[in-house]
From TrEMBL:
Biased amino acid composition, Basic and acidic residues: 1-16
Listed name of the protein: tRNA (guanine-N(7)-)-methyltransferase
InterPro entries according to UniProt: SAM-dependent_MTases_sf (IPR029063), tRNA_(Gua-N-7)_MeTrfase_Trmb (IPR003358), tRNA_methyltr_TrmB_bact (IPR055361)
Pathways per UniProt: tRNA modification; N(7)-methylguanine-tRNA biosynthesis
Residues that bind substrate: 158, 190, 225-228
């Protein structure tokens, strides 16, 4: 389909940069995003200034004490590349018993989600404005996540750019190592070719099992975004994948 260059919330999603294909994950230093300039609105900047100190967790190369960060012990879900945060905020509002760690490098998106946190008094979200690979490697303990959300990542639709896509075997193996047994990973894309790659990569990961026969129905907790609604009106497809860690 004719993909909007931005993710479902209006910001281009994180994707791997090019690197030596044969190196290890650590030597590759893959990055889960593409650096891109963006203008921060006055409202977003005000949210960053006023709410950032409470809701933005500074990156540090050491395990975070998430129970202390959230002030409670609760199921924890990591979202990579939340864009402008509308979906994240809606899910967090509907699942008040769960905590959400949102990773996004683009400042306008961080400001937008902070603004939503303030407007809707969402105490169960924390934000990391940093590369997701380093966050996973250093700040998230193995076997600790109850869920992972990655919605509408950059499809890198040209064949020569497919290696930049975020969902690759090495990245998935790192992600799965941070999930609890029984934890879920939920992906969504509106590019059929990427959906096929996602299904292939997740199906090949021995630690995961598909909860559906192929693609999954959209779960009730994932809202339909404005870009998705527009695409569906035009007859475009959206593919959800829901796998669990064995």
């Amino acid at each position: 389909m004719n993909h909007d260059p931005h993710d479902a919330d209006g910001v281009e999603h994180d994707a791997q940069s090019e690197a030596n294909e044969d190196s290890t994950l650590h030597r590759r230093r893959i990055r889960s995003f593409v650096t891109r300039a963006g203008r921060v609105s006055p409202g977003q900047q005000r949210a960053i200034d006023e709410l950032g100190p409470r809701y933005v967790v500074p990156y540090a190369p050491q395990l975070a004490d998430w129970d202390a960060v959230f002030g409670r012990k609760a199921p924890r879900v990591l979202e990579i590349g939340f864009g402008m945060g509308a979906t994240t905020a809606e899910i967090a509002a509907s699942r008040g018993g769960d905590d959400f760690i949102g990773v996004e490098v683009h400042e306008p998106g961080v400001g937008a989600l902070l603004k939503l946190i303030g407007e809707h008094a969402l105490g169960n979200i924390r934000i990391l404005q940093h590369d997701a690979v380093e966050v996973l490697e250093h700040m998230i303990a193995p076997d600790s996540l109850d869920g992972v959300h990655i919605y509408f990542p950059d499809p890198w639709h040209k064949a020569r750019h497919h290696k930049r896509r975020l969902i690759q075997p090495k990245f998935l193996a790192l992600l799965v190592s941070r999930m609890k047994p029984g934890g879920y990973i939920h992906l969504a894309t509106d590019w059929q070719n990427y959906a096929e790659q996602m299904l292939e990569v997740l199906s090949a990961e021995p630690a995961l099992e598909n909860t559906a026969d192929g693609y999954a129905p959209r779960p009730d907790f994932r809202p339909v975004t404005k870009f998705e609604r527009r695409g569906l009106r035009l007859g475009h497809g959206v593919w959800d994948l829901m796998f669990r860690r064995r």
